[in-house]
Amino acid sequence: GLSQNTIDILRKGQALGNRANVFSKVGDSITFTDYFLDNFGAGVYNLEAYWYLEGAIDYFSSTIARDQDSFQQDSIAAKAGWNAYLLQNPEYADPALCIAGETPLECEYRHTRPSIALIMLGTNDAGFVDPYAFRVNMEWIVQTSIDNGVIPVISTIPNRLGEPEQVIQFNAIIRDIAARYQIPLWDYSTIMATLPGEGLGPDGIHPSASPAGWVGMADFKASNLVYGFPIRNLTALHILHSIWQQVIMRA
After folding, report:
1. Pairing of β 68-69 and β 185-186
2. How many other β-carbons are positioned within 10 Å of the β-carbon of residue 59?
3. Which helix (H) or strand (E) holds 234?
4. Would you state the pLDDT for residue 127?
5. pLDDT value at residue 1
6. How far apart are CA 34 and CA 23, in angstroms?
7. 74: nearest Cα among 143, 27, 140, 115
C-alpha cells in the first residue's frame, strides 16, 4: 500500500505541470547504465509469469524527447561515480542544459517534468561519507523532489565489497527517511541478499549481469532471476506498476 502523502505529492506535481506517465532516473552507474530499464523502451523483454506488468510498460512509454521514453531517456541526474552530495552541487549540472546555479536534480525535473523519480544512491558514499552527511544529502534529494511535485522512490543499496557495515547503516537511514516522509521504499537490498553472491558482479560493487548480456536484463524466466540487474529491472517495474495502480489511477 502507498500513503495518502504519495497521492498528495502527485496532485501537487500535476498542478505544476508534471506528466503522470513520465519518470526520472536518479543515481550513479548502477542507474546510468543501459542495463537499467533500457530494454523496456526498446521492446526487448520477456515478462514470463509477470505478464501483468505489461500495462505499466505501456503506460510509461510516452515519448519524452529524441524519440525516447522514460525507460531509455538519459537522465541529467544520473552519472557514473556520483554520490548523494553531487545531486545538489550546481558544478555538476550539464551546462548545455541547465541554467546558472541549478543543481543536476532540479535541472532534470525542469526538463523532464516527471511524476516519479526512481532514486538509488549510497554505493559511492559507503566507505567515503559520514552517515550523518549521507542522511542530510538524501533528505535534501527527497525534499527537493517533493517540492517539485515528484514522488521520490528511494531504494536501498546492495552490499559493497569491503563496506558491509556502512551499507547496513546507510540502508537503515534510507528506510527511516522513507518512513518519516511517507514515501515509497524500494527495498532492493533485501532481495539482493537472497541471490547467489548477494547479486553482485565480479567487482563486488555492481549488480551481476545476465549471461545473455543486454538482451537478458529484462528476461524474467526463473533461471535468469538469480542475477542482480534482472532483479533490479523486475522490482523497478513492480514499483512503477504499484504507483500507477494505487496512486495515479486514484488521484
Report:
1. unpaired
2. 16
3. helix 228-243
4. 86
5. 63
6. 16
7. 27
Which helix (H) or strand (E) segment holds residue 125: the answer is none
Q: Residue 3: is its pLDDT beyond 70?
A: yes
3-state helix, strand, coil in the chain (%, to 5): 50, 15, 40
Output phi, psi for 65, to 5 deg. Answer: -160, 155
> Are 251 and 7 a contacting pair, CB within 8 Å?
yes
For 39, the grid coordinates are: 530494454
Question: Grid coordinates standing for 126?
Answer: 559507503
Half-sphere exposure of residue 37: CA atoms within 13 angstroms, side-chain side: 26
Residue 202 has pLDDT above 90, yes or no: yes
Closest among 165, 144, 170, 140 to 155, alpha carbons compared = 170
DSSP-derived pairing of the beta strands 151-155 and 185-186: parallel
Residue 26 pairs with which residues in a beta bridge? 119
Mean pLDDT of the chain: 96
Q: What are the cell numbers at 250?
A: 486514484
Of the candidates 150, 126, 61, 225, the one whose C-alpha atom is nearest the C-alpha of residue 137 is 126
pTM of the complete model: 0.96
pLDDT at 66: 64
Cell numbers of 118, please? 526512481
Q: Crossing angle, helix 131-147 and helix 164-181, to 10 degrees?
A: 30
Cell of 222: 526463473
CB of 53 closer than 8 Å to CB of 241: yes
In DSSP terms, which residues pair with 68 in a beta bridge?
Answer: 65
Query: Can you name the residues that pair with 114 across neighbouring β-strands?
Result: 19
CB 159 within 8 A of CB 121: no
